[in-house]
Design goal:
The complex is a heterodimer of chains A (327) and B (83). Chain A has 327 residues and is of the alpha+beta class. Chain A has eleven helices and seven strands. Chain A is 49% helix and 14% strand. Chain A is globular. The chains are: A alpha+beta (327), B mainly alpha (83).
Chain lengths: 327, 83
């Protein structure tokens, strides 16, 4: 039996910036196909105040956070790449679907129990984990895992032991309607407002204990991911349109670095069981100032400018790329 | 392998037993090769604090600046010199 799998490498996940495994795999497929994937990161202007509000009042958690749309939901709304979730499959049914889709050079997301996968490195975030089946290596199945990042060759028995009756199928990739896209960007950013600092002021006071830090840490974790996504989006917008300036990107970089610092600081205080409230207040104050300034500047830029594409983006639109690479 | 790196490697193997590969060197990438992400790096540093009776300064606690095992051992050496 031949050795044949789709051209993916585990390093691709360094760019996907997903909160969930499905997001990571969805973005990996777009990246592999040369799609300008950072354009999907625009719906991340949510303020840290809103995120913390969700965690306190809506009992949200990091791994199942619903306060921001999933990247594959955004991609579907924009008509780029649809997914279909199929449940209650036996192993043979899953293999049948895989054999059908791989003939069209399309990978298949397969739900697994990550603790049943061999050679574990790191600890998975949740039990409902998806890996990507990308082909076969003789009689083994080649899979791509986003956490930990790796490519594995699994025997049929190993895959069967790990499989948990659900798959997510990918459709075909369609070109972006850029007029629709920029209209959505304008509408979305137009509705965003800078942080009111309400929730943070409620939290960061002398009643705060190290036990409270877990959910604050996870809320900041979401915010951290959102700012990394916006950095990728901002850089892409700067290279491909007239919207983003170097000054705005620098401001966003500062915001992102402060969020990283706050995230680590919260975990340090939590594990040390010792709080330094003034450090938290100081870094949060600076973070909010810079974050709010960036949001205001971006809103103003979008309001005042007609967004014009330039450079590589124009060339990409004029090309009609083949939807999937061949082997 | 220098003493600080040896300490870090032994601690990683002890704290994350079964979750990391057994072959760890100074150049091993914490996240990409050992699966030790930002939160686990914090866990690693706090664990080293407790084990070695040191306290890292807040300005040094930047997981994103710690990419390899060597970065952690260099940080440790800085505090061991001060002691």
């Amino acid at each position: 039996m031949p050795r044949k799998w789709l051209d993916f490498k585990a390093e691709i996940f360094a760019h996907t910036l997903g909160i969930t495994c499905v997001e990571n795999h969805y973005m990996a497929v777009l990246i592999q196909q040369g799609f300008p994937y950072p354009c999907l990161f625009f719906q991340n202007f949510q303020t840290v105040d809103k995120t913390i509000h969700d965690f306190i009042h809506n009992k949200e958690s990091y791994i199942a956070y619903r306060g921001m749309k999933r990247l594959h939901e955004i991609g579907s709304e924009l008509g780029i790449l649809e997914t279909t979730h199929i449940r209650n499959l036996c192993f043979d049914e899953m293999i049948y679907i895989f054999n059908e889709t791989i003939l069209r050079n399309i990978p298949l997301l397969v739900r697994v129990d990550p603790f049943q996968l061999p050679r574990m490195v790191g600890v998975p975030w949740r039990e409902d984990h998806y890996i990507m089946l990308i082909g076969k290596d003789h009689s083994n199945y080649v899979i791509l895992d986003d956490y930990p990042r790796r490519m594995l060759s699994l025997s049929e028995t190993e895959l069967k032991n790990a499989f948990r009756s659900e798959v997510i199928q990918f459709g075909e990739i369609h070109p972006m309607d850029w007029d629709k896209y920029f209209q959505k960007v304008k509408e979305y950013v137009g509705e965003c407002e800078p942080s009111g600092e309400t929730e943070l002021k409620l939290i960061f006071n002398e009643n705060l204990t190290t036990d409270d830090l877990l959910f604050i840490r996870d809320a900041i974790g979401i915010h951290r991911m959102s700012r990394k996504r916006l950095q990728a989006w901002g850089q892409w917008m700067k290279e491909n349109s007239n919207l983003m300036s170097e000054n705005m990107l620098h401001l966003l970089k500062e915001t992102s670095e402060l969020t990283d610092k706050l995230y680590a600081m919260l975990e340090f205080f939590r594990l040390r069981k010792k709080l330094n409230l003034s450090s938290l207040e100081q870094i949060t104050k600076t973070l909010l100032e810079k974050d709010n300034e960036w949001i205001r500047k971006t809103k103003e830029a979008i309001k005042q400018k007609k967004i014009v594409l330039k450079g590589d983006m124009k060339r990409w639109i004029m090309q009609h790329k083949r939807l999937w690479n061949s082997f | 392998m220098d003493h600080a790196t040896q300490t870090v490697v032994e601690f990683i193997l002890e704290r994350f037993a079964g979750l990391v590969p057994e072959e760890i060197t100074k150049d091993s990438l914490l996240k990409d090769e050992l699966g030790i992400d930002s939160l686990r790096i914090v866990e690693l540093l706090v664990g080293l604090e407790e084990k070695l009776n040191i306290t890292f300064d807040e300005s040094d606690l930047n997981p994103d600046a710690l990419v390899t095992v060597g970065d952690v051992s260099n940080l440790l050496q800085k505090y061991e010199r001060v002691r």
